[in-house]
Amino acid sequence: MRNILFTCAFLAASILAGLTGCSDSTAPNAQDFGTLRLYLVDAPGDYQAVNIVVTGVEAHFAGADSLSGWYTVAADTDTIDLLQYVDGNIFALADSTLPVGHYTQFRLLLGEGSNVVVDGETFPLFVPSGMQTGVKIGHDFTLGPDGVFEATLDFDATQSVHRTGKGQYMLKPVIRVVASSGDTAERGAIVGVVMPSASVVMTMVGADTVRAEPDPESGAYRLAMLPVGTYTVTIMPLLNAYGDSVITGVGVEAGMETDLGLVALVPILTN
């Protein structure tokens, strides 16, 4: 059973009564409210720490322009080490009430001080436009009167942190939104080991691709936050000397890990 860690560091109830610059046709009904809960998880990465400074979380009401229509759902400032929220550990990012209606995206507001730790050394993490406009994450959802919408922001630190040619580290967030039915235990994971480890493991959740990069030494991987169901897992080697491996009919149960064991990729025979 996975250990679920809830750290309510981002709890806010800042509610705006109306939208500046919005017409009556797009303004929400301020008399009715629902609840939005957001969580954050990360995939295991090659870094010792990836610390991001989050100063707020907002949701955008449908029909409003890009400047107005943003509702604050978390306003505290905290430094989050993404790599602490893997293997079932979940960070409670926001729990707040919002006017009912249709929303189209979230926005993470980032502050100064984000960094990455590599081989015991801390490097500044540059976030292009993140401190000006925030990191926008598109996802449509509708909030009804007294309703609850819960979702998990599945952060991929390995795919998000890039080292530039000048030796600097840059954050270009790769984040998948996983809507929840209200209990994160209703999802499961697919785990296993692949050799050679220089590979990419992926599956599909609807139109979204869920991918993981195996640990360079052990070859272990984890496809997390998967809804209950049956999946096809594709393993694509990064080395041309090996062929792809496709595993069909992989079942995922609530709160459980489906272990595919060791998959040894088959070399491609050449004449």
Task: Provide a brief overview of the structure.
By secondary structure, the protein is mainly beta. It has 1 helix and 20 strands.
Main structural class: mainly beta
How big a fraction of the residues is strand? over 45%
Q: Can you tell me the overall shape?
A: globular
Note the total helix count.
Answer: 1
In this structure, how is the largest beta sheet organized?
A: 9 strands, mixed
Beta strands, count = 20
Q: Rg, please?
A: 20 Å
Distance between the termini: 49 Å
Low-pLDDT residue spans: 1-26
Features:
single chain, 271 residues, mainly beta, Immunoglobulin-like, 20 strands, globular
Characterization of this structure:
The protein is mainly β and 271 residues long. A hairpin with a 2-residue loop joins strand 7 and strand 8. It is globular. The N terminus is likely disordered.
